[in-house]
Amino acid sequence: MTINKTWPVRLVEGPVALRPLRMRDGQPWHELRRANHAWLAPWEASRPVDEAPEMTFAHMVRRLRAEARAGRTMPFAVTYAGNFVGQLTVSGITWGSLCAAHIGYWIDKGHAGRGIMPTAVALATDHCLLTMGLHRIEICIRPENANSRRVVEKLGFREEGLRPAYLHIDGAWRDHLVFVVTAEEVPGGLLPRWRASMVSGRPSPREQ
After folding, report:
1. What does the alpha-carbon distance between residue 132 and residue 7 come to, in Å, rounded to a whole number?
2. CATH code, 72
3. What are all long-range contacts of 106-115, with beta carbons under 8 Å and residues at least 24 apart?
4. Does residue 131 lie within any of the structural domains?
5. Do 152 and 114 contact (CB within 8 A), yes or no?
6. Does the keyword Acyltransferase apply (predicted)?
7. What's the total number of domains in the chain?
8. Side by side, which strands form the sheet with 100-107?
9. 3 in a domain, yes or no?
10. Torsion of CA 188, 189, 193, 196, to 10 degrees
11. Closest to 156 in 3D by CA, of 133, 185, 123, 114
12. How far apart are CA 111 and CA 35, in angstroms?
């Protein structure tokens, strides 16, 4: 079993922070999920064969904690000015000849468009590439999900291609675009580049 020696960790940039998801996040998590059902439902993972009961929040946290202890996952709460506003998970952490991971995320609609999620993704990516020593970060997004695509475009992730019928989302197998960044592409990390783009108002290099 691989142990992630960099976990648990808290990552901060201004009012945006990533910290481990915890049991007492249950109430704000449920409140946001209810309030954002229509906003999130088209992009939610579903089961092709729905035999098991719906996973509770407590069960999800316990499972994610076990995966984190095993070094395969990092489940973060996204907070803004101390308030719970979303979730970001680094999953599929793989070492050996691949040294890669996936990032997935969601945010409250009322906090979207403020640069919170690009900042959170930059924080998580830099932790993976610069601190943990991973080589490659992937984010897979449905082509129709313009809001999520804007996050990776703002950060300069490279579009690598289409994976047909890649994941079961919202009741059907859906195509996904793959966006990637490798350690060689951002030797100083994503966060400095993202900070510079916010100050200048100019897009990151791959957006231009």
Report:
1. 10
2. 3.40.630.30
3. 106/36, 106/40, 106/43, 107/78, 108/32, 108/35, 108/36, 109/35, 109/36, 109/39, 111/80, 111/85, 111/86, 112/147, 114/80, 115/154, 115/198
4. yes
5. no
6. yes
7. 1
8. 11-13, 16-20, 74-80, 83-94, 100-107, 136-141, 172-182, 158-169
9. no
10. -80
11. 185
12. 12
Query: Does residue 49 sit within a domain?
Result: yes
Which amino acid type is present at position 38?
A
In the structure encoding, which two tokens stand for residue 147, read together? 């809001």
Task: Tell whether 5 is covered by a domain.
Answer: no
What letter would DSSP give residue 38? H
Place of tokens 């100050």: 199
Range of the domain at 141: 11-201
Residue 93 backbone dihedrals phi, psi, to 5 degrees: -65, 120
Q: Name residue 172's beta-bridge partners.
A: 169
Q: How many CB atoms lie within 10 A of CB 205?
A: 11
Question: One digit per residue, pLDDT tens: the chain, 208 residues?
Answer: 455 678 999 999 999 999 999 999 999 999 999 999 999 989 888 888 766 667 799 999 999 999 999 999 999 999 999 999 999 999 999 999 999 999 999 999 999 999 999 999 999 999 999 999 999 999 999 999 999 999 999 999 999 999 999 888 888 899 899 999 999 999 999 999 999 988 766 655 544 3
